[in-house]
Amino acid sequence: MSFFKKLFGRGAGASASFDAPMASEEHEGFTIEATPMKDGGQYRLAATISKEIDGEIKSHKLIRADVFASTEDCVKFTMLKAKQVIKEQGDNLLS
After folding, report:
1. Biggest alpha carbon distance in the chain?
2. DSSP the chain
3. Rounded to two decimals, what is the model's pTM?
4. pLDDT (tens digit, 9 = 90+) per residue, 13-66?
5. In this structure, what are the phi and psi dihedrals at residue 22, rounded to the nearest 5 degrees?
6. Which of 16, 24, 34, 38 could cross-link with 75 by S-S, CB 3.0 to 4.6 Å?
7. How far is CA 53 from CA 24, 30, 57, 90, 92, in A?
């Protein structure tokens, strides 16, 4: 099995997201919902970042290669990374 197939969700080692967000937080007008992805015995950093723009909810799925042993650590670092992305890209993240 190719490393890239596992990483991008094709093949037996594919990651699976949690159905419901494990944590949600408002930041600078954006909503961050942490949805860690199970990857073997670890959890991959993943979130949905959304914001209402002109009456329409727009969202971006953030998935990183970072993996953590516990869901608590994964959620904590997901929130930090999502805030960093919002700071760097702002509304351009949703275009």
Report:
1. 45
2. --HHHHHTT-STT--EE-SS-SEEEEETTEEEEE--EEETTEEEEEEEEEEEETTEEEEEEEEEEEEESSHHHHHHHHHHHHHHHHHHHGGGGG-
3. 0.80
4. 555 666 678 999 999 999 999 999 999 999 999 999 999 999 999 999 999 999
5. -85, -20
6. 34
7. 19, 10, 6, 12, 12
